[in-house]
Specification:
InterPro entries: C-CAP_CF_C-like, CAP/MinC_C, CARP_motif, TBCC, TBCC_N, TBCC_N_sf, Tubulin-bd_cofactor_C_dom. Pfam families: TBCC, TBCC_N. Its main location: cytoplasm. Keywords: Acetylation, Chaperone, Cytoplasm, Phosphoprotein. With about 350 residues, the chain is an alpha/beta fold. The protein has 2 domains: about 110 residues, Up-down Bundle (Methane Monooxygenase Hydroxylase, Chain G, domain 1), CATH 1.20.58; about 160 residues, Pectate Lyase C-like. It is about 45% helix and about 20% strand. A 7-stranded parallel beta sheet has the order 1-3-5-7-9-11-13, with no helix packed on it. A 7-stranded parallel beta sheet has the order 2-4-6-8-10-12-14. The longest helix has about 80 residues. About 15% of the residues have low confidence.
């Protein structure tokens, strides 16, 4: 009996040793597979880095070349045709920058945008210099007074109806390119509009508006909306950045390269953006695709340099919410049944 038990134990021990020996190659094989995967991962990471460096080098060379060409046109431009060529090249530069957002470092992106802004300001100054001077003509004081009375009367009638033909423009601050900053300020319960010829590549600032509807038909360079309450703002394609600050209970429809929303609450944003939107110190922000349309929009998109096929409207970074495994409570996707808005 003891002999049989000993034989069985020996047999089990032999089986166990054989199993242990068979597990060794499996562990080695698994370890080798993990090592190969890690080598492949590092190789792929290195290749991706090389590709990004190549893209960055290509961007730097192409941007510098086109920038020099635009500067030469602006310095020696003695005709509107030369300035129009400079404007067309500037649009190409803007598109190059827009298409490079995903791989450019933040510093390079900021430097590129600042260079474009300076060139656009110089272009505006050169256009102003080449415009024909208005002929001076004397007018009687009585005629001027009568005209002023008519304008004041008409403005009062429009204001009574809730429409302001020429609302108070924003005061322009000094500095380079300040003539290109304009907008509306301190207006309540009005319908405000700007057309393409007024907006083209200008920096628009809307501040302290209450219960207003703003329609911006055209292609601004930047748009900033601050301290707005219960407003609807509809804007054509913005070449660079859109900023919202200290707004509440608003609706915004805009296409742009970058969007940043700060200290804003309970606002719906109908968005087309080529990079990722950013929210900070916000709550109740809802996003949906850009759906506003107006005659001439195709031309404005072409002039803006934005890629209409690229829309990251639902890719949002919340600077106050760093958890990757949980959605931010500060913004959400607007349900489809709530996206049907009568714009006009």
């Amino acid at each position: 009996m003891e002999t049989a038990s000993f034989s069985a134990a020996a047999a089990n021990g032999a089986v166990g040793s054989q199993r242990d020996r068979s597990l060794v190659p499996e562990r080695l094989q698994r370890r080798e597979q993990e090592r190969q995967l890690e080598v492949e991962r590092r190789k792929q990471k290195r290749q991706n880095q090389e590709v990004e460096e190549e893209k960055s080098d290509f961007f730097a060379a192409a941007f510098a070349r086109e920038r020099a060409a635009v500067e030469e046109l602006l310095e020696g431009g003695e005709s509107m045709e030369q300035l129009e060529e400079a404007a067309a090249r500037l649009q190409g530069l803007q598109k190059l920058l827009n298409d490079s957002v995903l791989f450019l470092a933040a510093y390079d992106l900021r430097q590129g945008q600042e260079a474009l802004t300076r060139l656009q300001a110089t272009l505006a100054e050169r256009r102003q210099e080449l415009q024909p001077k208005k002929r001076f003509a004397f007018k009687t004081r009585r005629k001027d007074a009568a005209s002023a009375a008519k304008v004041e009367s008409a403005s009062g009638a429009l204001a009574a109806e809730g429409v302001l033909a020429s609302p108070p423009p924003l005061k322009e601050e000094g500095g380079i390119g300040s003539s290109w900053v304009f907008g509306f300020s301190n207006v309540e319960s009005q319908v405000l509009e700007k057309r393409a010829e007024e907006l083209h590549q200008r920096d628009v600032l809307l501040t302290e508006l209450t219960k207003c509807t703003v329609r911006l038909y055209g292609n601004p360079n930047t748009l900033r909306l601050a301290k707005a309450r219960n407003c609807t703002v509809l804007c054509g394609p913005v070449s660079t950045s859109v900023f919202l600050e200290d707004c509440s209970d608003c609706v915004l429809a805009v296409a742009c390269q970058q969007l940043r929303v700060h200290t804003t609450r309970d606002t719906r944003i109908f968005l087309q953006v080529t990079s990722r939107a950013i929210v900070e110190d916000c709550s109740g922000i809802q996003f949906a695709p850009y759906t506003w349309r107006y005659p001439g929009m195709d031309e404005d998109f072409e002039g803006s340099g934005l890629d209409r096929s690229k829309n990251n409207w639902k890719d949002v970074d919340d600077f106050n919410w760093l958890a990757r495994d949980m959605a931010s409570p500060n913004w959400s996707i607007l349900p489809e049944e709530e996206r049907m808005i009568q714009w006009d």
